[in-house]
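Field reference: sequence -> structure
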Amino acid sequence: MIEIVFLVEEDPEGGYTARAVGESIFTQDDDLPSLREKIKDAVTCHFPDSEKRPRIIRLHEVREEVLVL
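Structure field:
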């Protein structure tokens, strides 16, 4: 695996959450810079073998917006 993708969303209770697509990895934090570090740590823990660890972590920020007519 060369790349892993995370969906990053604002948590309704505050902060942000990140969930990997296709892997059982989830983490959360209060701000985006801290969340990025937690994502790196989570990927390292999930893939202890550095040969099998993804080299690229792609963050896809999801933002929901409601428009009223």
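Note: Helices lie at 32-46.
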